[in-house]
Amino acid sequence: MKAAAFRRLAARTVLLLWALAGYAMRSRNKPPRPEKILVISRFLLGDTLMLAPLLAALRNHHPDAELVLAVQSGFLPLFALRPYGLSALAFDLEDTQSLRRLRRSGPYDLAVVPGDNRNAIAARAFKARWIVAHAGDRPQWKNLICDQLIALSSRPGTIFDAFADLAGPDRELGYRHGDWAVPLPAGAIAASAGRPYVVLHVGSSSPGRRWPAESWRLLADKLSARGYDIFWSAGPGEEAIAREIDPAARYTDTSGRFDLVQLWHFVANAALLVSADTGIVHMAKLNGCPTVCLYGPGGEALVGKGRFFRHAAIRGVVAPHFRDRRDGRVFKRRMPWAMAWPGPSADETWPDPGQQLQAVFAAAVALLEAIPQATT
C-alpha cells in the first residue's frame, strides 16, 4: 500500500515538472483546425463510457484529426475497435511507462479535459498546446492551468451532454446503435439454456444506491414467473451482496465472474437489465440492452439519457431514499438548470417498498413487451 502511494506521488511530481516545462509550448490562440487532439480521462468505468457524446462531437467537428484518449489501462479492451476512430492509450499513475508513452505521443494541438480540471496538469505534461475545460471547478487553482474555460450550458441536459460542448457548438448529435463496438469475448459468458434472460445488477460503488434485498428477491421471482432466467450481477468484491439477497442460490450469481468484454456481451445479449445508477447502466446505453434504472432524486436529469442517448431503451424509476444527486451537482459543479431537491416535506410520505417494487416491475414489463415473450 505504501509502495503504491509512493509511486503515485512520484508520478504526480514528474507530471508537475513536465507540465511546468510544457508551458513553453503553449499556444497563444486556440488552433482553428487541430490535427492532433487529446482527451484526458481519470474516470471510473461508467463516466469513461459516457465520454461518448464528447468523442462523437470531436469527431464531427474535426473529421480528419488524430483523436487520442488517455484512459485507465483496465478499460483499454473496450476501446480496441476504435470507437469514433480514436486511439486509446493507458494513463496509470502507478505506471511511469504509461506516462512516458503519453508524453512521447505528443505534442497535441488541443487537449480536452472533461470533469476534474486537475487533469489539465497531465494534458500540459503530455505537450498539449491549448487546453479546454469547463469553468467552475474547485479549488480555483485547477482552472488556472487551462487556456479556455467554457461555462456550463443553461440548456437542460445531462453532464455528459455538457461534455460535448467542450468540442464546439452543439450539432444535435445522437448515439446510433453500433457506433461503439467491442471485440467478441473469450469463452462462455452465460448458461441460460437458450432462454432469454434478465440481469439484475445489485452492486453499486455507493452503499447509498442499494435497493433492499427483499425488493430484489421479489422482483426476481416476478420476472422468473414470466419465463426469464435470472442472473444476479455485481462487481468484484461485491459478491456478498448477491449472497445476502439470494442465500439459497435460487438464481445464478455472476458477481465478479466477467472481465469487461465479457460483461459487455453478457449485458448486450440480455432481454433486460435492472440496476441502480452505476457503470453497467452506461454500458447498456452503448450496447442497446433495455434497462430499468433506479435513480436518486434528480439523478435521471443529471446522468440519464439526456439528448445524446434520447433513443435509448431506458426507463427510470426514482428511489427517494437514494442520497446522491440531490443538490444538482456533478463533478463539483451545479448544473445551471438543475434545481436542488431538498427531500420530502413534513406532509409528504415515502413510497413504501411495495409501491416502488411495482413501479420497477411495471417499467420492466413495458420494456420486455417490446421483444418476443419468453416461453416456459
What does this structure look like?
Helix 3 packs parallel to helix 7 (159-165), helix 8 (213-225) runs parallel beside helix 13 and helix 10 crosses helix 11 (279-287). The chain has helices at residues 2-22, 45-49, 52-61, 96-105, 120-125, 141-144, 159-165, 213-225, 239-245, 260-268, 279-287, 299-303, 353-368, and strands spanning 36-40, 66-71, 87-90, 110-113, 131-134, 148-150, 197-201, 229-233, 252-253, 272-276, 291-295, 314-318, 329-330, 333-334. The radius of gyration is 22 Å and the shape is globular. By secondary structure, the chain is of the alpha/beta class. Mean pLDDT is 90; it is low at 343-348. The longest helix is centred in the N-terminal third of the chain and has 21 residues, at 2-22. It has a six-stranded parallel sheet with strand order 3-2-1-4-5-6. It has a six-stranded parallel sheet with strand order 9-8-7-10-11-12, with helices on both faces. Strand 7 (197-201), helix 8 and strand 8 (229-233) form a beta-alpha-beta unit.
Set out the fold topology.
Elements: H1 2-22, E1 36-40, H2 45-49, H3 52-61, E2 66-71, E3 87-90, H4 96-105, E4 110-113, H5 120-125, E5 131-134, H6 141-144, E6 148-150, H7 159-165, E7 197-201, H8 213-225, E8 229-233, H9 239-245, E9 252-253, H10 260-268, E10 272-276, H11 279-287, E11 291-295, H12 299-303, E12 314-318, E13 329-330, E14 333-334, H13 353-368
Parallel strand pairs: 1-2, 1-4, 2-3, 4-5, 5-6, 7-8, 7-10, 8-9, 10-11, 11-12
Antiparallel strand pairs: 13-14
